[in-house]
Amino acid sequence: MDKGYEKERFESISIKTSVVKKFRQFSRQISKSQSMTLLLMLEFFEDNGISPGENLGPKMQTLEELIKKRINGVIAILRDIEKSQTKPTVAMMESLFKEAEPKKKPLILEKNAAGKKEKIRFRETESTRFTTEGRAKR
To answer: Record's superkingdom (predicted)?
Structure first.
């Protein structure tokens, strides 16, 4: 007996013989009574919001395989972009920045022997002057 439906009475409906045979075979395949099979089918259609006349398209397994293939394709494209575009561009940018770095110029030591305390000033030949504390004036 079907659990929860023991006290309900049976009703009859008229179904064509070929459909009844197919339905009974399906009921045996899923190991349910005919009433429970029909109830499961109705609940499935209601829960998923589909009608029996709609085509669900390819099976889930084929969809999963298709999605995996496309994801692998996207990964391959991204790796190719990384190898052919990103890494060479980064290497070129690094080489440009290495060449563009200003060369360190030697500091010239200058002494003022004007009578007062000896002050030592550091200066670069072309750019920034430094004070006695060693900080650049801006």
So the answer is: Bacteria
Measure the CA–CA gap between 29 and 48, rounded to whole angstroms: 22
The per-residue pLDDT for range 24-36, each reduced to its tens digit, is 999 999 878 888 8
User: pTM for this one?
Assistant: 0.38
Whose CA is closest to 32, among 44, 17, 46?
Answer: 44
Q: Which residue in the block uniquely carries the two structure tokens 């398209």? A: 57
Selection from 114, 104, 105, 110 nearest residue 132 by Cα: 110
Give bridge partners of residue 120 from the DSSP assignment: 111
Instruction: Output phi, psi for 123, to 5 deg.
Output: -150, 155
The number of beta carbons lying within 10 Å of the beta carbon of residue 38 is 15
Strand, helix or coil for residue 111: strand
